[in-house]
Amino acid sequence: MLNKILLLLILGLFAHANTILTNYRMNGIADIEKQMDKELTAPTYWNKYLKDIDTSFGYVESYSSILACNKEKSSLSLYKHNKDKKFTFVKKYNAFTGEKKGDKKIEGDLKTPIGVYKITKKISKLDSFYGPLAFVTSYPNTYDRYRGKKGHGIWIHGLPTEQERDEFTKGCIAINNSNIECLDKNIDIDSTMLIINPSETKQNISKEILSKILAGLYEWRYSWLYNDTQKYLSFYSSDFVRADGMTYEKFKTYKTRVFNKKEKKKILFNNINVIPYPNGPNVFQITFKEYYTSSSFKFEGDKVLIVKFDDNTNFKILTEK
After folding, report:
1. pTM of the model
2. Predicted confidence (pLDDT) per residue in 9-26, tens digit
3. CA–CA dist 4, 11 (Å, integer)
4. Which residues touch 113 (CB under 8 Å, ≥6 apart)?
5. 82: which residues sit within 8 A by CB, 6+ positions away?
6. Partner of 148 at 20 to 30 A CA spacing, among 22, 39, 58, 163?
7. Structural domains of the chain in order of their starting residue, each with its CATH number
8. Do you find a cis peptide bond into 160, omega within 30 degrees of 0?
């Protein structure tokens, strides 16, 4: 109970403490929890929370390193958290990217994709053409698949140790071998995000917009948690297609059936990241670790939402995984 009261104080609800305690006395902790859940849907809470947080690249909880590729200038820049958890510039590497300009769409189009990616693994035993090591990216990601983009095997790798090569790639990002080895020593691949942009990566993202998106994320959660089917579905675009191919109408039918059970749920979000999507006006990638428990279902794992944000309305979810 003490922890609950402390959190209420943090949320600025001290003036309402008597009302809250009365509600607790009469209705139990569930009533307090519902009030707390509702407070998380307020942009005012997130405005205060974000005040001193670095939002250079968006709202970032789970990454301590960012690699920003500028295709126009053929560069790959590394930014890392300093002791104050501010992203600071570390080093810029000259880079080769795809022979053709523009965003990758199909296998073999010789284009480097534009988007936000994880590094999924490091390969150190590979053909000498790719240098001493390579980092495998998560292309195609959830948004790529939603848009029908094809292809695979987009890496950050070195240069040939035994062969000559052209000053471009088939779609990968290539840097010289001493730099790829330096990069290997400077990043933890599990906490590194790659942003590939056609030009300079946008920085200093609006805290006001991020506050609204985070408030919207928790309003979506609130409607889910308390079985408000109409409100929950209002967050989904009519063009929504889930990562497994489920269309909006089928998704609506499925979720309505689930919500009609009126099950009590526990839903927690951790490691939240809200990143503006390159070349996607008002499109954001939201990722987080989700913990979901009800009487009939349990889930713990990574969640991805791709949303289109309109300053005057709730965001609309285009796809999710």
Report:
1. 0.91
2. 445 544 555 666 676 666
3. 11
4. 103, 104, 139, 140, 144, 149, 151, 154, 171, 196
5. 88
6. 58
7. 1-33 (no CATH), 40-54+205-320 (3.10.450.50), 62-197 (2.40.440.10)
8. no
